[in-house]
From TrEMBL:
Residues 34-211 form the Sulfatase N-terminal domain. Keywords: Calcium, Glycoprotein, Hydrolase, Metal-binding, Signal. One of its GO terms (molecular function) is sulfuric ester hydrolase activity. Belongs to the sulfatase family. It comes from the Eukaryota. It comes from Prasinoderma coloniale. This is Sulfatase N-terminal domain-containing protein. Residues 1-21 form the signal peptide.
Length: 229
């Protein structure tokens, strides 16, 4: 399974969960649970998706599932991210420009004491306040110096992935040390069992499991999942 297949599996699982929990609408019935899947794709170029192929319809990278999402949704062609990682991610999570956070350096590594200021609204915290279950997989890169800065300290119910900016796809090491975690709530746990397994498979399996578990749950909550390969 490659990255495109992982995104396809995630999209199909989300669609199945939505279908299972959304019978024919009744104006008098309570609102059905909502679903949010946020995919942050590192280094995704303009020409790396099929729906930017233009009139020719030709693209070097077939992305049929992303193309379908784009065709059925709203495309915001004039919104731009920062040129580096941590500033972009901090803006996505807060809705603020980096000047409001002072995060200009590309990488918030383990030796960096900075992070998104705690007083700023943070996306998963806001979603949890509205009743959403929040889960994340993949790359974090928004600070680890304080345990309050890691994903489950900033509003995610669970996190599977790495805190830093890069990892080996199989050993999951960074600078000769493992940086792979499976955190739930305030229980922070190195996930050594991941060694030898390809990252994309791990992220896809976890994200799909979260969505499928939600579809089977008797107690309905709104569901949000963030995938950050």
């Amino acid at each position: 399974m490659n990255a495109r297949a992982a995104i396809a599996a995630l999209a199909l699982a989300a669609a199945a969960a939505t279908t299972a929990s959304a019978p024919i609408a009744d104006a008098s019935a309570p609102a059905q649970p909502q679903h949010i899947v946020l995919i942050v794709a590192d280094d995704l170029g303009w020409n790396d998706v099929g729906f930017h192929a233009g009139a020719s319809g030709r693209t070097q990278v077939p992305t049929p599932n992303l193309d379908k999402l784009a065709a059925r949704g709203v495309r915001l062609g004039s919104y731009f991210v920062q040129p580096t990682c941590s500033p972009t991610r901090s803006s996505i999570m807060t809705g603020r420009h980096v000047t409001h956070m002072g995060i200009y350096q590309p990488n918030l590594g383990p030796d960096n004491t900075r992070g998104v200021p705690f007083e700023l609204p943070f996306l998963p915290e806001q979603l949890r306040a509205l009743g959403f279950a929040t889960h994340a997989v993949g790359k974090w890169h928004l600070g680890t110096f304080d345990r309050r800065l890691v994903p489950t300290g900033r509003g995610f119910d669970s996190f599977l992935g790495y805190y830093g900016g890069a990892e080996d796809y199989f050993s999951h090491e960074a600078i000769n040390a493992s940086d792979f975690h499976f955190d739930e709530g305030l229980e922070l746990r190195p996930f050594m069992q991941a060694a030898g397994r390809y990252s994309t498979h791990l992220y896809a399996e976890r994200a799909v499991k979260v969505i499928e578990d939600f579809a089977r749950a008797k107690e309905r909550r709104d569901a949000a999942a963030a995938a950050s390969p």
